[in-house]
Every structure is written in structure tokens, then in C-alpha cells.
Amino acid sequence: MKHIISFILLLAMVHPTFGQDRTTLSGYIKDGSSGETLIGATAYIKELGVGSTSNEYGFYSISVEPGTYTIEYSYLGFETLSRQVDLTENQTVDIEMGDAAEILEEVVVVSEAEDQNVTDLEMSVNKLDINTIKSIPTLLGEVEIIRALQLLPGITTVGEGATGFNVRGGSIDQNLVLLDEAPVYNSSHLFGFFSVFNPDAVKDVKLYKGGIPSRYGGRLSSILDVRMKEGNSKKFTMNGGIGLIFSRLSIEAPLIKNKASFIVAGRRSYIDVLAQPFLNDDLDGSVLNFYDLTLKGNYNINERNRVFVSGYFGRDNFGFGEDAGFNWGNSTGTLRWNHLFSDRLFSNITFYYSDYDYKLSFGAEATNSFDWDASIVNYSVKPELTYFLNPNNVIRFGGQAIAYEFEPGRAVGVSEGEVSDISLDKRYAIEGGVYLENEQDFGEKWSLNYGLRLSYFNYTGKGDAFEFGDAPAGFRRPITSTTYFDQWESIETYTNLEPRLSVKYQLNPVSSLKASYMRTAQYLHLISNTTASTPVDVWLPSTNNIAPQTADQVAAGYFRNFQDNTYELSTELYYKKMNNLVDYIDGADLLLNPAIEGDLLVGEGRAYGWEVMLKKTKGRLGGWGSYTLARSERQVPGINASEWYPSRFDQLHNLTLSLFYELNKKWSFSSTFTYLSGTPTTFATSRFEQQGYVVPHNANDVRNNVRIPDYHRLDIAATWVPGRKPDKKWQGEWVFSIYNLYQRRNAFSVYFRQQEGRVLADQPTNTEAIRLSVVGSMIPSISYNFKFNQ
Amino acid sequence: MAIIRNSILALFAVLGFMHCTDPIDVELDSAESLLAVDAWLDNLPQEQTIYLTWSQPYFDATTSAPVTDAIVEVTNSGGTAFAFTEVEAGVYRWSPRPEVSSLGEEGMNFQLSIDLGGRLYTSQSTLQGSPAIDEIRQEFRDDEIGREDGIWTEFFARDLPGLGNTYWIKTFKNGAFLNKPDEINIAYDAAFDAGAQIDGLIFIPPIREFINPIPDPDDDADLDPAPWSPGDNIRVEIHSLNKEVFFFMETLRDQILNGNNGIFATPLVNTRGNVISQSGETVLGVFNVASISSLEATIE
Q1: Side-chain-side CA neighbours of residue B285 (13 Å)
Q2: B29 vs A685: CB contact, 8 Å cut-off?
Q3: Domain total for chain B?
Q4: Tens of pLDDT, residues B170-216
């Protein structure tokens, strides 16, 4: 590590002006109307042709020779601001930018930031503007972040209602979903229909599919970094909406003007409230709802210190009469402190808590009941420093420590008053990481981000650690020995060195080539062998029997903008190799099984593909088209005769088209079309009879040998704003949408069954293939959204 | 605990959670026919039958082709051999004689051998105990979600001591076996499956109550789905299973009910039988010799 630090410093010093007297221009870039800091805004020194991009907290810093400069501040959707700065000594300039759309109505200002697609070093990154997300037609009119991401190349889902998303052929547990830096272990409400993010509280959404910088770690395939709004620091604002599924309300207001503000945002579904009068007696007392609450506050202590507190609490509740109840949800809490050591050294320290848990209960009587709950809880501290060395070098370094507590299942059954406790032991682990990265420009054409992450994992007591004997590939391995470990006593440790590199070569002002390499390591595994992940799936640590997953990914891309940045073209090729992926023996028992590690198999994966996206960013007609040609495959000893086979989310073609059209000030329209190759599945070849039952059999013993029919769907939406006046306090809009316009019955899966009903003796039994569709018709909806500004 | 998950997810379906199903035509790969052994025997003094058939393409809804002219024999560890003779195509039977009334006693091992034109197939089974059924309780219950009002029953028995006893609880309504796939009621000790390690208890409530017939919501003939009416005869039997036969039944049940799990279905998995071919090819089905305990009652 020491050598690497020296190496990076050495590289940084290569810059010719290093060591000369420098003055620093720094500050925060904010949205002038709300006081929200802007992430990724640029401050550009015209005379020198150098600039700085504001970080996740809106902070920018440039160190240059003293002089008088013209600084251009720009951010997509905002009017570019120009400032003359006499930089004889270090200066702090906080900038408040004006909303371009409000000033110039339909004409969007052409700003420097619009060529970011080409000039930015980042590749394999998808950013979605929250306003774009809000314009996409959705299921039941609910604005949906994760489903919006699925319109971008390389991001797919196994079907409607499936939890999570798949990035470049990775499984859903390989995505690190961060909400204000705290991981969210289950990003969905109602399985996968809605995500846990309240759009009114979200400021910025960024998804890394590759070229992930060293400051992120812990998952193989992607990082979804969702940042919450800080809350309007200038005036009271209220946002809300009434839809068919949810109602939402958010309130933002300054606590101390320009110094402290907060946001509180809540949503609740009300299917059960609406349905209550129509429920039969036997459904009385049933509960079916989901809700979430997002809170954030911040306080600007002084120019050098700012603190943020944020929290999320969400839950899905299902209750069936008096007999059974089931609920699950996430809670997270984040405390952050931004501190400026100097105009060039920005620091942030984050403390977070995150918890995912579920509870099930059956049986109303105390003498006959079953209660079961499980959870994953973690606490973490994460210091990060950014050193704006000079305009050509931004060095970031920091670390993270996480303490995990896994409760894989606490279950108590009572049968006729006899209690049996079949709980599993808790499991504990510590994860650590340190990193160093530098973003460096070499001349006009070359930019690099190179870094290294060292990650460490320690699986610890207290609890029993098992050793397993051998079994033929694909069969359950028996426990051969059990050893007890005390609290925090080390059972197994793992270390991984994760190099990361991104390179950009600017071909000319409108086009560039980019390439990246990353190694990632993941120490957690979501244990799930169902088509779509269920809320009862359990997270397990790497143990003495389960090694961490690792992946290497290379990607290369070509980026070009046309017609004065009106069109952006991005195309990338990637190849990803994954090791130690968890799979399952046939008939694996994954829940409440103390010897679960004996039911797991370990295999390899590879995913590769070509992604292309063409985006139109200006004019009344905007939108994008995205196409991905991809493969995702697995090889697991004991499955598919140990040969490579397509993974559950191998979808060769993925085409999406998203169009937005603004007819006039009152009416705007949008539509999206999605086409996805059918997911692979395993079909039986034969049947045989056993005690009168007809049993399917796959005589060739192959996995995922056939595909269900292709998926395609068209959605449309129209938004009507009855009276749009910029100074109006209350602004309302109606959104009309139709999901699945041409009523395609897309298959989620195809399964086999013997004819329904009781089998009669001596009569042959029919067998059939059944298509399961989650949405079988068009779903129209209407919702009303409002905004109130004091 | 798969069944717990399954029952949770089935509850969503009850709420009319939006999804729909319809039969479609799909093309399947072809495959060779395999020998399927259906050898479920017991030690009661009654006829014992073994069915041998060939597997067939999945959508072939005709009666399975019988395996004829096999030499089928069962031997117990007491040294007695039982010859099963072909009484009709593919049906091999042994009938009790005055001197040998049953296959054997608890604790005995049994060997099955099938000679099919020189190809040899063998299997082993141990006769294990089954607990006595103490009571079949009848109760009138009000309607509740997923349940009509009417007479419901529950059986009470205590799992035999020791971990890893496995059973198949079969119910007969007026003499007819409740044979729907979702009426399969198997138990590992007193609970659902191996992970739980619940030993020597009274069977847990879902198992106790799985003896009620499951109505067909779509079937018009089944408009009155109350499970039992006064005068009905209920008979509950506990069959002891060998552990690998339990796992076979668990896979069988999960596979034929997989569709009930909707979007949470598991990949297609093959059952693993316990019949071994000397030439190494796959043999379908199982051989099990069970002890059977039972209790009967009339619904009042």
C-alpha cells in the first residue's frame, strides 16, 4: 500500500506547475431556488481551460496560479453563470444557479456541461435526472426509480414484479443499493412492483455498471447511489400526489434560513383501506399495505462544517384474518459530517445503520403457533477525504468498517402447548476496506482514474462453525465437525486487492474513447433459488465454507455527441468474469437449516455484451433508445452436467425506446417501449407415474435449456398542467397513463402441472404447460401531483 | 421450510393478487424412456403390488407403457424371499399365504431385485415404525380466509423418539384416497422438513390439519367445499418412509405444485429415486416398505 501511495503522489507531481504558488477557488454550487447543493456541476476557468466538478456534497475546488479569471458555472438544466474572479488569494465562492427552464421556458440553455457524456472520464455510468424519471409512464402512475433504470442499457429484470434488477448479467444481490450511503438490502415494495425510494425525496440517482471507482466496494456488479434531498433551505415547500396505489406527501422547510433545513417525506398504499368495505367477512381484519418514511435534516455549522442526519423506514404488511401475518422492511439511519480541513481538502465521515428484517406468524392461539423472524443488521463508519491537489489531480482516500449481525432465522413453534425452538445461531462478521484513488488529467486528451481498494472480511463467532465432508457434485455435503467460537473470535478471514482503472482519450471536442478495468469482491450472499427473489430470502456472510465472490470486468466504449450536443451516442463493450458464485443442490433446504452451507454449490460466471444508447437531449421531442446484446452464463459442478449454461437472467436482446414530447405549456406526453428476450428456464422432457401422481422429469439433466416467450410492452402517459405560472404558489398536474397498452400477456414463467382436481383411478392423467403472466391486460391509471411553494 | 414459504405465497394468490395463468403449447426436447419403479409396499397382511412402467414424453397423456416380463423379487433380512408375479402387464403382485402373511417386521431390511431380460435393478428399504394416532378431532369452524365454514378435522399423534423419522400421512374420505397433489402430507419428525429438528412432539398444526380435503375453487361440482359432512367416514393412515423416500416425495410434491408459487417458483429439479441400475442408467421412482398405523372415525 505504501508503494502505491508514493506512486500516486509521484504521478501527481508529474504535472509541470506542481509546487508553484497557487491560489484556491472553492465553494459550494447550489440550486438558487431551493438551496439544494448540486452534484456534478462544473466550475470552469475559461482562460486556462481547466475546471472542477462539484462532489456529492456540492463542493468544488480549483487551485491555479494567481490571476484574474472568468469562471463559468454550469449544470444541466440551469443557466450557465459567468463570474469574474480576481484570484490573488484563496477565495470561497458559493454559487446559486437559476433554473433555466423557468427563465427561458421551452428553450433549454446550451451549457458547457452538456458535453459531459463525451468529456467526462466516467463510463458505464447511468445518471437519471429525477425530472426525467418523473416523466416516464409507469405502472399505476407511480414514479419509479428502479423501473426507470431498466430502460437503460445493461439493466434488466427477470419479469414484472420481480424484486431488484440485474446489471450486466449479474444477480440482484450483486448490486449495492445505497440510500444516503446506507445500504438497502431489499429495494422493493410489494415484491418488485415499486421501489422503496420516494421520488419526492430523491435528489440524484447514479448507477455504476463498470469502472466503479475505488471508493465503492462490497458488491460485484453495480453501485446504485441514491442521494436524498437536503430540504429546501429558503422556503417552505410541499410536494405530494394522490394515485391509485399510494398517496405521498413531502414537506421541506428551512429551520434557520440558508443554514439548516429538513425534509420529511412519506408514502402509504391504501389498497386495504379502499378494499375494506368490499371484503367478505372472512377477509375482515386482513391487512395489506406498505409505507415508507424518509427524513433528513442538515445544519451548516459554519463555512467549514456541515452535518446531515437522514433516515429511512419502510415496511410491507400482510395480515390474513387472525391466523397469519407477514411483514418485512428496511430501516436505515445515516449521520454525516462534512469538514473542510482547507480549501483543497474536503472530508466527510459517515456513520450508518441499516437493517432488513421480516417477521412471520401463524396461529392465533398461544398453544398452537409458529413465529419466525430473520434479519441482517449492520453498523458502519466511513471516513473519506478528497484532496483537490491541482486542476489535474483530485485524490480521494478513505476507508470503511462494517460490523454485521445476521439473524438467519429465529423460529419458535408451539404444538399443543409444547414449545420447540428451532432458531438458528446468529452469525457475525466484520468487513473493512481502505482505498486510494486519483483522478488525473494528462494534457488535453488523456484523463485517468486509477486506484486501489484493499478489502478485508472476518467471519467471527460467537457460534458454531461447521466443517463439511465430501459428496458427489450436486449432492448435500454432511457436517463432519463442529467447533464453537466465542464472540468476535475469528473463524475465517479473507483479503482482496481490488485494482480499478478508467481511462479517457479525447479524440476531438465531440468524441472520446474510454476504457476501464475493475476487480470487485463481495462478502455477502443472498440465498435464493426461486425465479424471483422472495422477501424471506436470507443474507449470509462468507464463512469458512463460502468464499467471497469476486469479479473482473473490462469495458471499452466510444462516445460521441452530434449537432451541438443535441444527440449523445454512447456505445460500450464489456466482459465480466465472476468467481465463487453461490448455487444450490437439487432440493436444497435454504430456510431454517443450520447445515445450509452443505446445500450450497460454488461456480463461475461470465457475462459479456454490447450496449448502445442514443439520446436526444434538446428540443420539444426528447428521449432515448437503448439496445443491449448480452450473454450471462454459469458453470457449476453438479448442475447441467458441469457444463456452461445460461443464467436465469440471460437475455440476449434488450431494446427500449423512451420518448418525451412537450406539446405546449399545458400538455406533455411520454411513451416507453420495452423488448426483452425471454428468460431461460428448464423444461421437463418426460413424465412418469408414482402412486398416481404424474412426475415431470428432465431426462437430459440440463439447466435452462429453453426460453419463455419474449417480453414486450408499450406504455404511454400524458401530463396536464391546468395553469402553469412560475410565481403561482400551488401547482398541480394530472398524470394519465396506460401500462401495457396493447395488452400483451407477457409470460413471467412457464411451469408444468398435472390436470387439476382429483385423479380418478385407471384414467390417464393429462399434463399441461401453463403460462404465468403477472400483468395480463392494460392498466390505466390517473394520479394528481401537486407542489406548494410558500 | 419450503412449505411455509409456499403457504405464505399461496395466501397472496387468495387475495387475488394480480396474475393470470393459461395453458400454452410448448415444444419439449425428446428423451429416451426410462424404467419407472413404483414399489410402495407395507407389512400388513394384504396383497402387495409393484408397478413397472416406462417414462413417456411429458405431454403424452396416455397410460404409461407397462414393463413386462420382468422377474421381481423382494427378500427380507430374515431370509424370506417374496416372488412378485406379473398379474397383468407391468403389474407385479405378491399375495399373503397362510404360512407367510406379511413381508416382515419393524427393523427388518428389504432388498428389491428386478431382472429385466438380464438387466439388473436393485434397491433397499428398512421397515420403520409409525406412531399410533390418538385422536381425530372434529370441529365446526366459521369461515375465514381461504376456508369455508363447516366441519374440519385434525389428527393427533406423537412423532417417534429420535431425529429423522419420516412419514406420509394419507387420508381417505369415504374410502377414497385424497390424492390431489396439494393434499400430499409428509412429515419429517413432527414438522415439515429436515432443517427444523423438532423431535418427539405432537405433529405440528399444519400437518395435523392437512387431512382435510382441499376443494377446487374452479370446479363447479365442488360448490360446497366444506370438507366434511355428517355421516362421512374419515380414515387417517401414517406410513413410515425411508429417509431418501421422504426426500423423493418432497421433491415430487414441490415439483408438481411448483406452479402455485407464481413468480417464486423454483427451477425444475429431478426427483432422486433409490433404485440402482447395475449398468448405471437412471431409474425413476422408489422402493419403500412401510409400517402403517391408522384410525377411522365417522363425522358427526
Answers
A1: 26
A2: yes
A3: 2
A4: 999 999 999 888 899 999 998 887 766 678 889 988 899 899 988 76
Written as nine digits, the cell of B260 is 402455485
Q: How many domains does chain A have?
A: 3
Parallel/antiparallel/unpaired status of strands A600-616 and B109-116:
unpaired
B203 touches chain A (CB under 8 A): yes
Q: Rounded to whole angstroms, how far apart are CA atoms A609 and A166?
A: 14
List of chain A residues whose C-beta atoms are within 8 Å of the C-beta of residue B11: 318, 320, 324, 326
Domain closes at, from B79, B110, B126: B126
Residue A745 lies in a domain: yes
Contact A686 B55 (CB under 8 A): yes
The predicted-structure confidence for A116-125, as pLDDT tens digits, reads as follows 788 888 888 8
Between positions 121 and 160 of B, the ones with CB within 8 A of A are: 143-147, 156
Alpha-carbon distance B300 to nearest alpha carbon in chain A (angstroms): 24
Listed residues B126, B146, B172: the one ending a domain? B126
Does A288 share its domain with A198? no
Burial of B35 (0-12, 13-18, 19+ CB in 10 A): buried
What mean pLDDT is predicted for residues B101-113?
A: 95
CB contact under 8 Å between A770 and B271, yes or no, is no
Between CA A739 and CA A717 the distance in angstroms is: 8
- Yes or no: say if A373 and A410 are a contact pair by the CB < 8 Å rule: yes
- SS3 (DSSP) at B196: helix
Q: Check whether residue A659 and residue A774 sit in a common domain.
A: yes
Task: Residue B146: give the domain boundaries.
Answer: 2-16+130-266+292-298
B275, part of any domain: no
Q: Considering CB atoms only, which of A288, A363, A532 is closest to B15?
A: A288
Domain range for A157: 125-226
Distance CA A504, CA A514 (A): 4
Our CA angle for A594, A682, B166, nearest 5°, is: 40
Pair (B74, B108) in one structural domain: yes
What residue has cell string 368490499?
A278
